[in-house]
Amino acid sequence: MNQKNTTEMTEFVLLGLSSSSKLQPVLFFLFLVLYLLTILGNGLIIITVTFDSHLRSAPMYFLLCNLSFQDLCYSTVTVPKMLSHLVTYHKTISFQGCITQMFFFHFTGSTEIFILTIMAYDRYIAICRPLHYKLIMSQRTCWVLAGTSVLGGVIHSITQVVLILRMPFCGPNELDNFYCDIPQVIKLACTNTFVVGLLMVSNSGLVTLTCFIVLLISYTVLLVRIRNHLAEGKSKALSTCASHLIVVTLVFVPCVYIYARPFQTFPADKLVSILYTIITPMLNPLIYTLRNAEMKNAIRRTWNYSI
């Protein structure tokens, strides 16, 4: 395919969640409420950790603040565009806008996965090596780990986007989703996509699946160790690890479903996309705050101080 054909695609049409004119206003208000709750919940965690000196200096809450920021960005990459399409007739996105959305979608998503992995490491050190915890998880180490997760997200996302940009697009231009993502975009390329699809599955799906399995094993070992060996603070440690495990499951299971298989369309794809782009970023703050007395007390202190 020559270079001229690769530039003919100027925009994509997003088919969205529903073509029903009666259902779209209902979906708009529903997802607007969920998005506002996502902003409120994650923003509250970020503000609380930032202004509470005790939480700010604790590695677990420093990482939780980073996770909330990524959740906020992750949802913002897709939801505002989806909301605008629910109230407008022209449901299009430019080719450059589509590529940009894919870059930040995978950047924030992969960074979040790396942060969750670091949080598992943090809990392992806190439970298995408590006497060395402050030395190993120093503030400098936390900043380095957070920076590394961002760098890893950039590298992952650039790799994905470069592979897409090297492919020719000359029509059709309809994406059966409410945002731009690789599984849908790659199907529209005017070339054989088998090798690129295999690289995408390896880069996203297998890496995500491997991380998920490692994290499940890690938290299982930690929960067994807490139950059998930890005496002091057992309830708090169990609650913390359980919360982390719930969030890990909510984040990883949909990603494994979408990316660790051939890029084919299945009826549940859009529902799963809603789960990990809208529902999970909203639930994460609730899971962490409702099961964490220290966080709830810090929120009360911050609220009382502000008023």
TrEMBL record:
<keyword id="KW-0807">Transducer</keyword>
<dbReference type="GO" id="GO:0004984">
    <property type="term" value="F:olfactory receptor activity"/>
</dbReference>
<feature type="transmembrane region" description="Helical">
    <location>
        <begin position="142"/>
        <end position="165"/>
    </location>
</feature>
<dbReference type="Pfam" id="PF13853">
    <property type="entry name" value="7tm_4"/>
</dbReference>
<protein>
    <recommendedName>
        <fullName>Olfactory receptor</fullName>
    </recommendedName>
</protein>
<feature type="transmembrane region" description="Helical">
    <location>
        <begin position="271"/>
        <end position="290"/>
    </location>
</feature>
<keyword id="KW-0472">Membrane</keyword>
<keyword id="KW-1133">Transmembrane helix</keyword>
<keyword id="KW-0552">Olfaction</keyword>
<dbReference type="InterPro" id="IPR000276">
    <property type="entry name" value="GPCR_Rhodpsn"/>
</dbReference>
<dbReference type="GO" id="GO:0004930">
    <property type="term" value="F:G protein-coupled receptor activity"/>
</dbReference>
<feature type="domain" description="G-protein coupled receptors family 1 profile">
    <location>
        <begin position="41"/>
        <end position="288"/>
    </location>
</feature>
<feature type="transmembrane region" description="Helical">
    <location>
        <begin position="103"/>
        <end position="121"/>
    </location>
</feature>
<keyword id="KW-0716">Sensory transduction</keyword>
<dbReference type="InterPro" id="IPR017452">
    <property type="entry name" value="GPCR_Rhodpsn_7TM"/>
</dbReference>
<dbReference type="InterPro" id="IPR000725">
    <property type="entry name" value="Olfact_rcpt"/>
</dbReference>
<feature type="transmembrane region" description="Helical">
    <location>
        <begin position="26"/>
        <end position="49"/>
    </location>
</feature>
<comment type="similarity">
    <text>Belongs to the G-protein coupled receptor 1 family.</text>
</comment>
<keyword id="KW-0297">G-protein coupled receptor</keyword>
<dbReference type="InterPro" id="IPR050427">
    <property type="entry name" value="Olfactory_Receptors"/>
</dbReference>
<keyword id="KW-1003">Cell membrane</keyword>
<dbReference type="GO" id="GO:0005886">
    <property type="term" value="C:plasma membrane"/>
</dbReference>
<feature type="transmembrane region" description="Helical">
    <location>
        <begin position="206"/>
        <end position="226"/>
    </location>
</feature>
<keyword id="KW-0675">Receptor</keyword>
<keyword id="KW-0812">Transmembrane</keyword>
<feature type="transmembrane region" description="Helical">
    <location>
        <begin position="238"/>
        <end position="259"/>
    </location>
</feature>
